[in-house]
């Protein structure tokens, strides 16, 4: 069993990379990926810990890209965290995130919920601040009843406390991952909020840009969604990947490896991803829809 979607304290998770590896070892996961939001600083200690524990580590990242309706995230697997171009892009994205955080803070204060950046930072444990940390601060102050309530009322896209930030286009997000030697996978497709037909069209555009997979196995994907996404992987010759989107204490209902309890992402996915890496290294074929 594997888990290819984990977050550490280098983005909005509650565990340091070494702790993630230790937790994975307890339940005997064979492979795990660190996929922090727009951040690759946790990869070196993560990979070192995996090597010590005989767990296969996958260097990853989760990139937020510009999307008009819902939310689109692209996962990058097997990235070279020493890639100068990737580092430059990540720094640019982090700068945009910092400005966005200042905008959110101002909006929340103007809505009559005074908070300070120091408070928000205390939940992040550093400068890697995201909306989840704002939600935690709002809950702690009693302004909302839960983290989900914070997003539903203030922090979700289109809500009164939401602020946009500079993002890459979907195609450029995929390209950034490819240029860093990685494989690009669309994360949790339901967050795009598209009809089945529109989603298929969007997948086609991403495949044309170099997409290699779809995150099919995910805690919030019911049987209907899994079937739909599996059909898309077959249609476009993509790898069906999976992971828990584990954050730790902020989302305690989601357990590493198991999600809400029933997730079981098969080891065979690693073989499929390895095959795609080989094809990419050899300059192999492009994905083509299956007729």
What does this structure look like?
The chain has helices spanning 17-26, 43-53, 84-110, 117-124, 131-141, 147-155, 170-179, 196-209, 223-235, 268-281, and strands at 2-6, 31-34, 56-65, 72-77, 183-186, 213-217, 239-242. With 291 residues, it is α/β, with parallel strands linked by helices. A seven-stranded mixed sheet has the order 1-2-3-4-5-6-7. The longest helix has 27 residues, at 84-110. The model has no long low-confidence stretch (mean pLDDT 92).
Structural features:
291 residues; alpha/beta; TIM Barrel; DNA polymerase, domain 1; seven-stranded mixed β-sheet; globular
Short description:
The chain has 291 residues and is an alpha/beta fold. Helix content is 44%, strand content 13%. The two termini are 32 Å apart.
Write the layout of secondary structure elements.
Elements: E1 2-6, H1 17-26, E2 31-34, H2 43-53, E3 56-65, E4 72-77, H3 84-110, H4 117-124, H5 131-141, H6 147-155, H7 170-179, E5 183-186, H8 196-209, E6 213-217, H9 223-235, E7 239-242, H10 268-281
Parallel strand pairs: 1-2, 2-3, 5-6, 6-7
Antiparallel strand pairs: 3-4, 4-5
Helix pairs in contact: 1-2, 4-5, 5-6
Based on the coordinates given, report the CATH architecture of the largest domain. Alpha-Beta Barrel
- Shape annotation: globular
How many DSSP H or I helices? 10
CATH class of the largest domain: Alpha Beta
- The tally of structural domains comes to 2
Q: So, the CATH homologous superfamily of the largest domain?
A: Metal-dependent hydrolases
Main beta-sheet annotation:
7 strands, mixed
Low-pLDDT regions = none
CATH topology of the largest domain: TIM Barrel
SS content category: alpha/beta
Mean pLDDT: 92
**Sequence of strands across the biggest β-sheet:** 1-2-3-4-5-6-7
- Proportion in β-strands: 5-15%
Termini gap: 32 Å
The helical percent reads 40-55%
- Using only CA atoms, what is the Rg? 18 Å
What is the H/E order? EHEHEEHHHHHEHEHEH
Instruction: Please report the total strand number as a whole number.
Output: 7
């Amino acid at each position: 069993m594997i888990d290819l979607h984990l977050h550490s304290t280098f983005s909005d998770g509650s565990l340091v990379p070494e702790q993630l590896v230790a937790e994975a070892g307890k339940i005997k996961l064979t492979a795990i990926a660190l996929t922090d939001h727009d951040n690759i600083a946790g990869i070196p200690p993560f990979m070192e810990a995996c090597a010590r524990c005989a767990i296969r580590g996958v260097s990853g990242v989760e990139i937020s890209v510009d999307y008009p309706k819902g939310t689109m995230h692209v996962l990058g697997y097997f990235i070279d965290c020493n890639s100068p171009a990737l580092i430059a892009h990540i720094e640019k994205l982090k700068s945009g995130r910092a400005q966005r955080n200042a905008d959110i803070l101002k909006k929340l204060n103007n809505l009559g919920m005074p908070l300070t950046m120091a408070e928000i930072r205390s939940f992040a444990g550093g400068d890697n601040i995201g909306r989840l940390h704002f939600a935690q601060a709002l809950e702690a102050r009693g302004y909302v009843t839960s983290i989900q309530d914070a997003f539903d009322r203030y922090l979700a896209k289109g809500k009164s406390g939401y602020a946009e930030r500079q993002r890459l286009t979907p195609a450029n997000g995929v390209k950034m991952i490819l240029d860093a030697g990685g494989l690009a996978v669309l994360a949790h497709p339901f967050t795009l909020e598209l009809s089945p037909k529109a989603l298929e069209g969007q997948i086609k555009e991403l495949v044309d840009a170099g997409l290699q997979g779809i995150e099919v196995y995910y805690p919030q994907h019911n049987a209907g969604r899994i079937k739909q996404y599996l059909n898309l992987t077959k249609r476009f010759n993509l790898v069906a990947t999976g992971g828990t989107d584990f954050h730790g204490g902020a989302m305690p209902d989601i357990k590493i490896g198991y999600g809400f309890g029933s997730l079981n992402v098969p080891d065979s996915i690693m073989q499929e991803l390895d095959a795609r890496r080989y094809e990419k290294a050899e300059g192999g074929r492009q994905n083509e829809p299956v007729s």
